[in-house]
Amino acid sequence: MVESMPMSRVAQQERSKVTRRRLLEASLDTLSDVGLAGTTVSAVAARAGVSRGAAQHHFPTRDSLVEAALEEFFAERTQQLRSSVAKLSTGSGAAAVDAVDEVVTLIFGFFSNRPFHAALHIWAAASTDDSLRELIVPAEARYGREVYQLTALALNADLSDQHTRRLLGLTLDVARGLGLGSVLVDTRKHQNDAIKTWSRILDGIKRND
Amino acid sequence: MVESMPMSRVAQQERSKVTRRRLLEASLDTLSDVGLAGTTVSAVAARAGVSRGAAQHHFPTRDSLVEAALEEFFAERTQQLRSSVAKLSTGSGAAAVDAVDEVVTLIFGFFSNRPFHAALHIWAAASTDDSLRELIVPAEARYGREVYQLTALALNADLSDQHTRRLLGLTLDVARGLGLGSVLVDTRKHQNDAIKTWSRILDGIKRND
Description:
Chains A, B: Keywords: DNA-binding. By secondary structure, chain A is mostly helical.
């Protein structure tokens, strides 16, 4: 074996990013499985296959780790929705019911996928754990505003109109309710009916010119 | 001390009912706190202050206990909604928006109270636990149908009309979504807006003559 070259600065930074990312993913898995009580820096490090020392270099405390994991989770979810919205065929100014249908399908689907189910575990844990709740609430509020804005953008909604704002808010409530319903059983048929009905209702919003 | 009289048959039955009830309540608390893995007949008996033998007399296995606890939970929730619906001022045939408002307030509130939050823990646990899921799904389906029927009754809805049926289904989806939103933060203002907006939409259902 030849002696290995000292790792370059770039390679070190790259490895550090990979470690950080693995720790964040392992945090969410650990939170989902065992709640905040069992989510220690050591437990997460073990799950991520990272040494405890390396984990503590990135995240000195449990709270800093959980906070970063939630931020990452929300950032990824927002990014995913943003790119889906960008791919919509509607474009700005479209107002046909079938275009609304496409947006509603996207938003409802966004709340019925696996990450939403994972989030549910964390929500349930936070409902009886004040320190987890304090970490989640501000991050969730920012996330909620971004999802709302992206939904408005996808629908080209005129947010100066109160009824339009309220219908957009309800759209996300319906989406969360459908997501919750989909946790234990396959609700695709019901979801498809809901998309049709909700699209008709949402077609009544005001659009930007 | 005088020797105690042998307990009468009626008193025995009464005591047995109280014991059963305490076990069922303790089961739900235990499920919420530690999930199915930690919900053993012994753990529930200890929490209920009942001997392990007495607990096993009522519920020989953990599954029989959990199943009964969920049935009891759903039965109580249905009974609570039934009596609330019976107290509504709407009566049969009422169609004014403010009457719809009253029904919507009732239904949305029903999904944002403490038992709903407790149920959320159990749902989250069931999403990663097949045996708990198998216990919940049929009981939940029956419960869902009853809540739907009671909502239809409260609104005097004509269930032969497809759009009416779909709006009723969506009403429960909105209610669940609002309930989920209310787990971590106080959403009363948003909930009040949602009641107004949804009542306007729901005023478009068909009524029985």
